[in-house]
Design brief:
- The chain is mainly α.
- Helices cover 43% and strands 0% of the residues.
- The chain has 1 helix and no strands.
- The mean pLDDT is 84.
Length: 42
């Protein structure tokens, strides 16, 4: 069984890469014009 990664163990550079990948994937999924919304939940 694998454990999920905790955010404290990740480096800031890795977080930036994950975030950019999510944005790029979302942009590619939009046909024509659209909106990408990002929300922070704590």
């Amino acid at each position: 069984m694998t454990r999920p990664c905790r955010s404290e163990t990740w480096f800031p550079k890795a977080w930036r890469q994950v975030f950019m990948n999510l944005l790029v994937n979302a942009a590619h999924a939009i046909e024509g014009h659209g909106t990408i919304r990002v929300r922070d939940v704590q």
